[in-house]
Amino acid sequence: MTESTKTDEKTSAPPAPVRTSAVARWRWGALAVLLVLAVYAPFQLAPFYVFQLTMVLVYAVALLGLNLLVGHAGQISLGHGAFFAIGAYTAAILMEREALPYPLTLPVAAAVAFLIGLGLGVPAMRLRGLYLALVTLAIAIFLVPLLKRFEELTGGSMGLTLAKPQPPAWTGLAEDQWLYFIALIVAVGAFLLVASLLRSRVGRALHAVRDNEIAAEVMGVRLSFYKTLAFAWSAMLAGVAGSVYTWVIGFVSPDSFTVNLSINLLAGIVVGGLGSLSGPVLGGLFVMFVPSISQDINDAAPGVIFGLLIIAVMYVAPTGLAGLAGRLIKKIPRKKE
Questions:
Q1: How many alpha carbons fall within 13 Å on the CB side of residue 290?
Q2: Does the pLDDT at position 129 exceed 60?
Q3: What is the 3-state secondary structure (H, E, C) of 279-327?
Q4: pTM: predicted TM-score of the whole model, two decimal places
Q5: CA 305/CA 300 separation, integer angstroms
Q6: Cα–chain center distance at 18
Q7: What residue ranges do the domains of the chain occupy?
Q8: SS3 of 121, please?
Q9: How far is CA 111 from each of CA 33, 108, 117, 280, rounded to the nearest angstrom?
Q10: Which parts form a coiled-coil structure per UniProt (predicted)?
Q11: pLDDT tens across 292-313, in order?
């Protein structure tokens, strides 16, 4: 076979199909529809359902941080609820004891959770696997009695009750609608921040650490540095979610932040989809609605029903609900290019 014949065969070969463009269009279209529905929903739903959607957004922000640590950095954490509580109590104490306006409590709660996460992350990140999981679990366990001990500051077992933020008169919104839009704005900002972070050099370093630590270290990635930062960023987002939680609920107590919260958050992000930006939203829906559904099905054994539902979801979608949705989108017929 001559060189010209080989060249003709190469030039006549059909081009490879472009698959990413169709998926990207579907994702952007779904995102646009989701945002429109999110803005439209509070004007059509009863106050209780608006409250439930607000809590979904709060949990989604917390799960966004957990996803950054577990899904993108490959580290296990069973203490995420502790940082959620730190943000909630920081906001509550500043509002109740210091009379600080509620918008100013958000950056303070984020900073406090970040610094505590950074401090705890330095020794914790020297561990991995089950050892790291046990250390983070210990953080969630000792936080509750610690909050009860400092009664003058935290209110002890009785907790703290505070007034919910009221909507400005010019908005014409009800209280539940105002809180919903606050949570929506915070959630959108958090998702944009994490999305830009993951597209940067830092995101590539986190993925390298997750996929193969030895190879990442050979390539010059500082493992301890990025692991610690991921732990701190994860804690910061949990603190942000905890602050908004305080505004929405208007009450905090140690019993609201037990180990079950950390376990539910971890289950939520696994079911929602690790390593996916849509996973935290789906996980937020799971954390908000599945426990209540389990309680309605059987008052005597809600934990059993909850566990069975997790098993059923993971059997149908082992990569999470976000992974299942991605596979369904890829199966949609596309025009040949």
A1: 23
A2: yes
A3: HHHHHHHHHHHHHHHHHHHCCCCHHHHHHHHHHHHHHHCCCHHHHHHHH
A4: 0.87
A5: 10
A6: 32
A7: 47-258
A8: helix
A9: 33, 5, 10, 22
A10: none
A11: 777 777 666 667 777 787 788 7
